[in-house]
Automatic annotation (TrEMBL):
Name the UniProt record assigns to this protein: LRP chaperone MESD
Domain of life of the organism encoding this protein: Eukaryota
Originating organism: Struthio camelus australis
Record flagged with keyword Chaperone: yes
GO biological process, one term: Wnt signaling pathway
Highest classification ranks of the organism: Eukaryota, Metazoa, Chordata, Craniata, Vertebrata
Subcellular location: Endoplasmic reticulum
Length: 166
């Protein structure tokens, strides 16, 4: 072995071989169990929205309390404020993401948590927004718009059978 070879643990995450998945632990009735096992050991980010109309400073304080509580429960979480009421929680081990999500949605000021494209409403969500486990509406809307645009382009770019004389 050469001295300049990098050990497996020191490789960047995307170059490390994936951890073997024990399929005996997967519950076919719960798709989250599959995600938990596939995200184990990988960095994962979740978006958290603070309810009400907080200032960026209030969001900083509230999410700091949540981060402290998670730290006390031995969860390694980094927090980044991305808006007046939004923050990103970055986890070194994505296998714990669903436990952290469960903690966050039970907080009074948590409007919702977005994890792997799923939006989970929190205690602080307005009654009309508490639709359990909905997908992001923006993604569905973008797909529909893209389909409409592609159909329109195909129809507009067809060659005509008639030949125009100049």
């Amino acid at each position: 072995q050469k001295d300049d070879d990098i050990e497996e643990g020191d490789l960047p995450e995307h170059k490390r071989p994936p951890a073997p998945i024990d399929f005996s632990k997967i519950d076919p009735g719960k798709p989250e169990s599959i995600l938990k096992l596939t995200k184990k050991g990988k960095t994962l980010m979740m978006f958290v929205t603070v309810s009400g109309d907080p200032t960026e400073k209030e969001t900083e304080e509230i999410t700091s309390l949540w981060q402290g509580s998670l730290f006390n429960a031995n969860y390694d979480v980094q927090r980044f404020i991305v808006g007046s009421n939004r923050a990103i929680f970055m986890l070194r081990d994505g296998g714990y993401a669903w436990e952290i999500k469960d903690f966050l949605i039970n907080q009074e000021r948590c409007a919702d948590v977005t994890l792997e494209g799923q939006v989970y409403p929190g205690k602080g969500a307005k009654e009309g927004e508490k639709v359990k486990n909905k997908t992001k509406p923006e993604k569905a809307k973008k797909k529909k718009d893209a389909e409409k645009n592609s159909k329109g382009i195909k129809e507009d770019n067809r060659a005509t059978n008639q030949r125009d004389d100049l």
